[in-house]
């Protein structure tokens, strides 16, 4: 076939599934690629353009992708092999096509050596992550498939190397994306070079028995077909042999002979709807004897990659077992072409626009359940949500880091000793700053030195992974206690000064133990060290210490005032007259300046009441009404405290509000509360709270908390309330 004929075939294939394809642009892409590769020859001696044409043919035939993908497939080696670049393709075709071509080139440039399983899994994730557009990986797999088909022209070393890579990376990706046809072809072609003897053994034995097998297949297919016709179930039956690599795995891993493989032959019945799937299953089990334990319902429970079908294995008429897979047309396409089929559905469906771009992936993900599925979702999410970045060590290991990671994160993920001795870093052989963000596929090399002074405190801000940060902190904690203490101390002292406190206050011997308890460190040095390595902040330490100091000071002051008062009282017995002083709340306490005064909760005195004071321990003077039962009870029961009771009186300049309480006993009636509130409001009482309750014998009890100016005001209010119809008693509670 000439190159022109090959191109014509491509156009026809594209038009057969996509009549609206942009044939003009596809032709331009072909001509552009032809020019780019005009000087190149393949290993086979053919003109190079044969290869991109064949890749485009696979993309069209196997995956039925859109026009942009065909254009990109035709030009997929242009950036790599000629002068052209992203800009030119973007201008001549479209930015999307340019992105696709560049994406494929990036994957082509990646070098990988074979590794243990976990490493391979990271590599596969990295490839998917790098293909921001899923079409990139689809084109790349097609590229690899054509290279595998033409591998015979390569050297034996290259054949082995590429085959291993295909088997370990590309076939599993094809499987993960649900593309079974691509996967089988990649596996069979790889096996041919990886184990030529094993491959030959299987293919030659299949060839030997080909007439026998063919006859069996034709006969069985006819039987199924005829019975379904009779049942009027619209259907298509396909028959196929198990593919060589799959046989190879069964023969070698399960140590079976060719005859022992139960699903060497498989028939596939494709029907219109899910109901018919189960009807066909009934028909097949009626025609042939089912083999126990071989029935699987992947329609009810789809596989993680979205695969759906009914599977059963039965015994054929000639004693040959075979498998039957039953599915609908849509299930069939998804099984054969995987995500590419979803892509196609999206193209034809209403999808479109940035919003619908990943609609099909979402749909695919929604069908996933179970642990295996979680892994699958995670893999795809790498692409969709990009929360991870994959980079190489110089010897080809892949490290998986959080997105935005820097060389610091990388160094600590290799080993904490590498991080602690790091003095610089190279990315793709260029020296970079330590805060540079790593990209998928970067090769990162850490420069270490024995004379390194260790990590810098700034690294804590640059590192993205908690692993790196905690290792850096660990280092500071262990290696630099002296320095941490010095740094911590100066940070602490600066913060203390800022808060207006002095070291002397902190160090006071009766205070220090309380402060240390409050910050939860045994000694000041421990606290300094923690601040030094970043385990605790100076701000936090000082704010806690300030709080504790305030509390201690207040207590000491009250204690001192009470003490002075007691002393003065003793003096005053010898020495008259008594000097009187004023407190803040309008209370005159004999012989005391500015002392802390609080009104007792039990009797809530107001100006005008006879009052008496009690010197408390630590809370100043508590003022009761002289007739408060609590006060008289206390004086009676604790005569040894008599010295603490002192005379207090109201000054002439009092405050304008005092909190007190009133209690009402009423005969209950409707609108009682309304009239009580009206009385309160006309007498300018500021009510804080009202608690009412009705008794069973139709009385109402009310407790009112309110602010009043003084005793006169309170008396006015109480008179007003007394006038309210139904109010029987108005009292001030005490005790
Ligand atoms: Mn290529």
Structure in words:
The chain is α+β, with helices and mostly antiparallel strands and 735 residues long. The chain contains 31 helices and 21 strands. The strands form 5 sheets. Strands 1, 2, 3, 4, 5 and 6 form a 6-stranded mixed β-sheet that branches. Strands 12-13-17-15-16-14 form a 6-stranded mixed β-sheet. A hairpin with a 2-residue loop joins β9 (422-427) and β10 (430-432). α10 (156-176) packs antiparallel against α11 and α24 (481-498) crosses α28. Residues 51, 76-77, 143 line the site of manganese (II) ion. Manganese (II) ion binds next to loops.
Mean pLDDT: 82
Outline: elongated
Number of strands: 21
Radius of gyration: 45 Å
Alpha-beta classification: alpha+beta
Helix content: 40-55%
Per DSSP, the total helix count is: 31
Question: Regions with pLDDT < 50 over 5+ consecutive residues?
Answer: 345-385
Bound molecules: manganese (II) ion
Largest sheet: 6 strands, mixed
Strand content: 15-25%
- Alpha-carbon distance between the termini? 113 Å
């Amino acid at each position: 076939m000439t190159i022109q004929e090959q191109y014509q075939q491509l156009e026809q294939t594209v038009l057969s599934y996509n009549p609206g394809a942009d044939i003009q642009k596809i032709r331009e892409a072909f001509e552009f690629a032809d020019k780019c590769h005009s000087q190149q020859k393949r290993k086979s001696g053919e003109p190079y353009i044969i290869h991109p044409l064949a890749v485009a043919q696979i993309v069209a035939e196997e995956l039925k992708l859109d026009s942009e993908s065909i254009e990109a497939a035709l030009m997929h080696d242009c950036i790599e092999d000629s002068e052209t670049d992203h800009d030119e393709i973007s201008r001549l075709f479209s930015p999307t096509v340019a992105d696709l071509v560049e994406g494929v080139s990036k994957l082509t440039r990646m070098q990988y050596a074979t590794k243990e399983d976990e490493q391979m899994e990271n590599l596969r994730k990295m490839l998917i992550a790098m293909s921001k557009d899923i079409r990139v990986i689809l084109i790349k797999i097609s590229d690899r498939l054509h290279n595998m088909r033409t591998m015979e022209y390569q050297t034996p070393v290259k054949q082995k190397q590429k085959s291993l890579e295909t088997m370990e990376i590309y076939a599993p990706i094809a499987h993960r994306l649900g593309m079974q046809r691509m996967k089988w072809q990649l596996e069979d072609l790889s096996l041919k070079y990886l184990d030529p003897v094993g491959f030959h053994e299987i293919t030659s034995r299949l060839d030997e028995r080909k007439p026998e097998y063919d006859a069996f297949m034709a006969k069985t297919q006819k039987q199924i077909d005829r019975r379904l016709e009779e049942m009027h179930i619209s259907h298509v039956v396909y028959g196929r042999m198990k593919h060589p690599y799959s046989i190879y795995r069964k023969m070698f891993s399960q140590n079976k002979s060719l005859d022992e493989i139960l699903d060497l032959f498989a028939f596939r019945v494709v029907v219109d709807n899910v109901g018919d799937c189960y009807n066909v299953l009934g028909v097949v089990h009626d025609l042939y004897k089912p083999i126990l334990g071989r029935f699987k319902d992947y329609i009810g429970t789809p596989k993680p990659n979205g695969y759906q079908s009914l599977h059963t294995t039965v015994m054929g008429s000639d004693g040959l077992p075979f498998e039957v897979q039953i599915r609908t047309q849509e299930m069939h396409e998804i099984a054969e072409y995987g995500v590419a089929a979803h892509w196609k559905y999206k193209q034809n469906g209403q999808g479109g626009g940035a919003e619908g771009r990943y609609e099909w992936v979402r749909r695919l993900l929604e069908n996933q359940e179970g642990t295996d599925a979680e892994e699958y979702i995670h893999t795809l999410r790498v692409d969709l949500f990009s929360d991870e970045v994959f980079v190489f060590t110089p010897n080809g290991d892949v490290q998986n880091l959080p997105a935005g990671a820097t060389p610091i994160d990388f160094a600590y993920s290799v080993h904490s000793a590498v991080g602690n001795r790091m003095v610089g870093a190279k990315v793709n052989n260029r020296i970079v700053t330590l805060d540079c963000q790593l990209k998928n596929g970067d090769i990162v090399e850490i420069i270490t030195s024995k004379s390194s002074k260790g990590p810098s405190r700034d690294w804590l801000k640059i590192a993205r992974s908690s692993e790196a940060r905690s290792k850096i902190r660990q280092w500071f904690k262990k290696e630099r206690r002296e320095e941490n203490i010095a740094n911590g101390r100066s940070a602490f002292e600066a913060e203390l000064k800022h808060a207006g406190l002095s070291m002397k206050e902190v160090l006071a011997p009766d205070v220090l133990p309380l402060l240390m308890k409050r910050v939860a460190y045994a000694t000041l040095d421990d606290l300094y060290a923690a601040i030094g390595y970043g385990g605790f902040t100076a701000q936090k330490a000082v704010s806690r210490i300030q709080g504790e100091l305030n509390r201690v000071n207040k207590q000491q002051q009250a204690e001192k005032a009470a003490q002075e008062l007691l002393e003065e009282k003793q003096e005053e017995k010898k020495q008259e007259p008594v000097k009187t002083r004023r407190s803040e709340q309008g209370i005159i306490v004999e012989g005391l300046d500015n002392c802390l005064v609080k009104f007792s909760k039990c009797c809530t005195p107001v100006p005008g009441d006879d009052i008496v004071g009690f010197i408390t321990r630590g809370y100043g003077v508590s003022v009761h009404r002289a007739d408060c039962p609590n006060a008289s009870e206390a004086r009676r029961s604790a005569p040894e405290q008599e010295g603490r009771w002192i005379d207090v009186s109201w000054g002439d300049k009092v405050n304008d509000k005092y909190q007190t309480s009133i209690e009402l006993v009423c005969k209950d009636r409707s609108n009682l509360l309304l009239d009580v509130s009206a009385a309160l409001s006309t007498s300018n009482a500021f009510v804080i709270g009202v608690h009412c309750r009705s008794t069973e014998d139709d009385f109402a009890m009310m407790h009112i908390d309110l602010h009043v100016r003084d005793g006169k005001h309170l008396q006015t209010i109480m008179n007003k309330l007394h006038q309210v119809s139904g109010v029987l008693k108005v009292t001030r509670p005490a005790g």
